Amino acid sequence: MSNETKTPDKFTIINELARRRGFFWQSYEIYGGVSGFVTYGFLGAKLKQNIEKKLRELFVNKLGILEIESPVISPSKVFKASGHVDHFKEPMVECSKCKKRFRADHLLQEFAKINEAETEKLSLKELKEAIEKHKIRCPECGGTFGEPKYFLTMFKTTIGPYSEAVGYGRPEAAQGIFVEFRRLYEMAREKLPFGVMQIGHALRNEISPRQGLIRLREFTIIDLEFFFDPEEPNCFLLKDFENETLRLVLAESKLRGSEEIVEVTVKEALEKSYIKAEWQAVFMALAKKLLVDLGVPAEKQRFIEKLPWERAHYALQSFDQEVYVERWGWVEVSGHAYRTDYDLKQHMQFSGADMRVFKEYEKPVETEQTVIKPLMAKLGPVFKEEAAKVAEMLSEADAEEVEASIKKSGYYMLGKYKILPEYIEVMCQKVKERGKRFIPHVVEPSFGSDRMVQFALEYAYRVKDDRAILSFPRDIAPIQIGVYPLMNKNGLSEKALQVYKMLLNEGFTVEYDEAGSIGRRYARADEVGIPLGITVDYETLNDTTVTIRDRDTWKQVRSRIEDLPKLLHEYFHWKADFEDLGKPFEG
RNA sequence: GCGGUCGUAGUCUAGCUUGGCUAGGACUUCGGCCUCCCACGCCGACGACCCGGGUUCAAAUCCCGGCGACCGCACCA
Fold it and tell me: At what angle are helices A10-21 and A449-460 packed, to 10 degrees?
C-alpha cells in the first residue's frame, strides 16, 4: 500500500467497488492470489451474462449465427496447423550480468538496423550469431547475453499419461470452429454465407498481467467466424447499416505518425476501400452499436487499423475496436480481422480433410480439354518397372505442352524420360463441370467479454452527492428491482415481501432489503446499479399503491401494485420510460 | 522477469523509527431502538498484523526467504 495521498483514479475506485460489492476479485486470495486470474461474484457473473446476452441479441439472431461450445484443450496439431505454435512466442535473451530480459529481435532491429521482416525469419541460433556478430551488449549495463530462448505464450500440457501427447490451452476460440467446419457447414444446410460463434474461456500465459480485467491469463473470449464466398462478398444487411458512422484510424495515418480519426459512414468506408470486406464493415458497425448499448458513447470509441507487421499472422486486414478509458487511454475491446481462407487452408493441409465447399454453376460449363492417355502396351516394354511411374507423370503433365512439344520436335522430355508420339494418345475430351470447389473466406469479430464488463463499469460509474452510482443501461443491470418496506414494522415488511415474491414470479431479478434506513438502502442499491426501487409505505396499506424510485434521477412515481408487472416489463424492454410508470410522488 | 515503493478486519487507516498489544479509530456489515423517503441518531455485535523461517524472555515492530500489489522497464502474436 502506498503512502502517497494521490486521489485514486477511476480504475482503482471501480476495482475497489467491484471487490467490495462482489462483482469480481483476484482469484486464490487465501493462497496469496495469482495475477491474471479472476473470480466473478454473482453480481459480476450476472452482469457478464447480461452483456453476452446483449451481444447475442445483436449478432446472433438476425444473422442466423450458430452458437457452439468446443473444448479448451486441443492436441498440439491444431495449433501447429493454425500457426500459433510458430507465431505465439517471442525470442528473448537475458543479460548475464543484470538479468534483464529483452526481445532478441528488437535488439537486432534497434542496434543492427535489421528490419523486422528479416529478424522474423531468424532461428534462435541465427539470432545468437547475429547478436554476436554485431557485438550487441545489454543496453542497461553493457553485459553480454546468454542463449536466446523462446517464451511461448500458450499454456502447454499433456493429454493422457503419455508425455509425448502434447496439448495446448487454446489462446482463442476460433480454431474450435475451424476444425469443425465440415460438420458445421452441413448443419448450415450447405449454404454460404453463415456464421458460427462461441463464447468460452481462452488461455494466454501473459508475462505480466496486471491490469485487472483488461489482461487476464484466463479470460472469456467471444469469437464469431463468418464464412462467405469471396466471389459473392456482398452483405445482405448492408442497407441497414450503410449510414452508420465509424470512427477510423487508418494504417496510412499511423505510418505518418498520426492517430487522426476519420469519421465515415459504412458506405463511404467501403467505397474508399478503407475497409476491404463488406461483412467486416457491417460487423464493425454492429460492434460499435453493442458498445453504445453497454453505455460507451460513440465518441469514446474508435477502430484502429493494424499495420502489416502488427497484424496477427492470419489476417489480411484488421481493425481493433478501442474504448477510451481514463487510466490507460485507448484499450482494445474487439478485433475485426479478415482471415481470408488462411485457417481452413492450413487445417486442410495439415489434416488432409477437404475443407472446400461445392458451388454449383447456374448452367454446367462444358469445356473441351486436351487429355493425354498413356498407352501402357507401348510404355511397358520401353520403361519396364518404371512404366507405371511414367504413366502417372504423364497424366499429370500439361497436355497442351506435351502436344506442342511433340508437334515441334517429335518428342517430349518428361523429366529424364523421352516420350515419343506412339507412346501416347492425344484426345480431345468434353468435360462437363457442374460447379467448383473452393475454400470460403472468413471475417472474424472477436470480443473480450471481461473487457466489456470493465468498460461497462467504467462508463456506468458516476458520483452524485458523494455517493457512487453505477448507471448501467437498464437491460444489463445485474439486479433489476429492489423492494423495500419503508419501515420494518406495522405489517409493511409482510406487504413488501408479497410484492417481492410477485415480481420474482414475473421473472424479474429482484432483491428484498429491509436492513437500515430507507436512505441507506437506496444508496446500497445505487452502488450496484439497481435501476428501480419499489417502496411499500403506509399509503400502500390503504390504497395498494407503492412508490417506484429511479436510480439515476432519484425521482419517484406512485403506481398500483397490480399494474407493476405490465409496467415493469415495458420499462425493461425500453417500451416505456420512467415517467410512464406512475404519477409523480414527492417523498 | 528486473528495479523502486509497499503489504494491519469488507474498506480507509493508527501503531513500526526506539520490540512490552489484551493491536486503537472511522466507514461498511449484522442485531436492536426511533411513522425512518435518500449512507440521520442512539445501544450492541462480528471482524485484521500477507505467508514461512530466524533473533529475543517477548516480534505488527528487527533480520532472511517467499507470495502479492502499485509505479517504471520489458511484454501484450
Answer: 100
- Quick check: bond before A531 cis, omega within 30? no
Global ipTM? 0.87
For residue A465, which nucleotide's C1' is closest to its Cα?
B38
Residue A232: phi, psi to the nearest 5? -130, 70
Q: How far apart are CA A407 and CA A349, in angstroms?
A: 38
pLDDT tens per residue across span A236-282? 999 999 999 999 999 998 888 888 999 999 999 999 999 999 999 99
CA distance A94 to A101: 4
> Å from A30 (CA) to B52 (C1')?
15
**Which bases in strand B are touched by protein, i.e. have an atom under 7 Å from a CB?**
1-2, 5-8, 10-13, 28-41, 50-51, 66-77
**pLDDT tens figures, A13-28:** 888 889 889 899 888 8
Residue A23 pairs in a beta bridge with none
> Nearest protein residue to B75's C1' (by CA)?
A207
- DSSP 3-state of A86: helix
**pTM, full prediction:** 0.85
Give A460-500 as a DSSP string. Answer: HEEEETTEEEE---TTT-S--EEEEESSSSTTHHHHHHHHH
